[in-house]
């Protein structure tokens, strides 16, 4: 069976995602679409709007055949780590193609960009290091270094200031660096940019805009034109949605019950920022005020939010040292076609399949289980052990 993979968050699954899945199938002739999806905490350092099983169900109802969980340590990592985790899982599952959305829309620009940066890696890293010392963020430093090289060698390459281009570059980088067999494919984003607010004149909007509209308006009618009917039906069951604003009391408690020295053990906390985080938690009653106290030119909103995820979940630097690559394939859900693919190809998979959490012991999986428990408590569901109690979703293809 011809398998195509995607790396996703589906927060929530919307019409742009549906467009991407349908066009990917058309371009690849895929028999099965496999999604590696983040769990309860996301790459930009946020709790997911709704839980991972609900988001997996939305995906299966809209054309995905198999949903695999991207472990927390990669799902909340920097773009390069996020890409490596997702691409590695798709490779282990035998995907022939990996498809991603981008602002560029052409895979050749990504390949050329990789070749340029790889060929001049020492020059790039030195330039990045010097710029970071001046106080700018890593993404800005990377893009500036890239522009310098692009002008120097007179090459027309992709714009690495665009968020989906950045992730796309890292997908291609990981595939080419590790000599994976699958081929990258990109689908151009249409209508809405990554950070754009919703437009009532369109049927496609960014996930960022959709979440913002839903959390502000607090009614599904505000977003129904931007999501498939199946996603809308799924969201109707929710009486609340998760965000840092709703999680802040628990986050604040977690910070203040620790000392700054204890906070320092968590992933990404460096340069004494633990003192700033601790002080802001003492002074601020709301999440926006807390973030404004910490945000700076050096510490972007996303970078800080990732730190907060790690504090909240208790993910330490010592743990990260041991989590170098995915160790298992955790199934969240599948259609009958996805189940057929597993039955035919499971002997060829490069990692063990986990369908029952209780039957598989691994410290990487334990972090995911803890993340689920804390997410459920903070979102008001008061459920512990849902990973143990929830079998993979099974959906019959029509």
From TrEMBL:
Lineage, uppermost ranks: Bacteria, Bacillati, Bacillota, Bacilli, Bacillales
Catalytic activity: cytidine(34) in elongator tRNA(Met) + acetate + ATP = N(4)-acetylcytidine(34) in elongator tRNA(Met) + AMP + diphosphate
Protein name (record): tRNA(Met) cytidine acetate ligase
Gene3D superfamilies (UniProt xref): HUPs
Cellular localization per UniProt: Cytoplasm
Chief subcellular location: cytoplasm
Enzyme Commission designation: 6.3.4.-
Amino-acid positions noted as binding ATP in the UniProt annotation, renumbered to this chain: 7-20, 101, 164, 189-190
GO biological process, one term: tRNA modification
Organism: Kurthia sibirica
Alphabetical list of Pfam families matching this protein: HIGH_NTase1
Single GO molecular function: tRNA binding
Function in brief: Catalyzes the formation of N(4)-acetylcytidine (ac(4)C) at the wobble position of elongator tRNA(Met), using acetate and ATP as substrates. First activates an acetate ion to form acetyladenylate (Ac-AMP) and then transfers the acetyl group to tRNA to form ac(4)C34.
